[in-house]
Amino acid sequence: MSYRPLAAAVSDLGVVDPAQAVVAVSDEGFARGRAAFETLRVYDGRPFRLDEHLARLGGSAARLGLPEPDAGALRTLVEAALEAAGAGDVGVRIYWTPGAPGAGPSAIVLVSAIPDWVEETRRRGQRLVSLAFPGRSLPWLLPGTKSVSYATHVAAEAEARRRGADDAVLVDLDDTVLEGTVTNVWWRERDVLVTPALALGILAGETRAALIELAGDEGYAVETGAYPLERLLGADEVFTSSSVREVMPVVEVDGRAFASRAAADALQRALRQLAGA
Question: 7-113: which CATH topology?
């Protein structure tokens, strides 16, 4: 989602030139990172789990002390931006900010191409390194909140790349596996899929939710909880999930190789089928 947007739409303005500045410098979303956002994938013009993403946006807004967004108005903005972009298979990002003082909250919708590296990385598999990252289960630390305050996650990805990996798996100070920088983390132990519990303060990924629904039909049980990194490293298979990246096989974590991608490939096919792709 780092490419120049194909289209943009903004509260009270509708569709705008993506290069046009639309955030006031006094908006706390820009000045202090106090804003919520959602990213979702669009398949052949059809947004996947849009209602669920808008509901999660509302939850993030509440935890940040922002007014509740109007889901209907946001849906209209998304539709307008997709029409302007010509739709197809794209990514959508929705921002909900406090707005300029006295002006009220603002929504911004960006439509972007899916980065080419996503499919290239899926084919070869992703390499991860573990990085220590304090958990966020305390309520005042905004657990499960998708806010624009992403500097530490960007830094984690940069550190992973500095170490020769593609991305990081964040591990609490007690060695409990949490999540990726922008993904949920999974591993397979025979016919059981294991993923960290939401109670750890991780993001409730919408693709994670979809995979939990799909797992049974693919012959897998799902287990959630708090698990040490050692358990992940002893798994039969590792993969990650997110809206734009979908299901991403992992071939290495901290130098430990993983050859199998059976569950990842099966769930990727099932996810695409569910999305109508």
Answer: D-amino Acid Aminotransferase; Chain A, domain 1 (3.30.470)
